[in-house]
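Memo to structure team: turn this sequence into structure tokens by end of day. - J.P.
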Amino acid sequence: MKVAISLPDPVFRSAETLAKRLKKSRSELYAEAIAEYVGARGAKAVTDKLNTVYGKESSEVDSALRYAQLESLTREAW
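Reply from structure team:
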């Protein structure tokens, strides 16, 4: 899909330089950059939602369970 965008001159020049250095077309460079940005924002959104859910609950392990876990470790041969 073709899209027209406006960029500040310094950003455009930097992108042009990078595309040439990487031997990529401008379109390839922009597509990769946008895909990476969107992916990072998507992952952050998931992390933020999980932090919200788990932030409301205690992460403290029940003392009986902690004891049982520690006991099972002492019985294993390393």
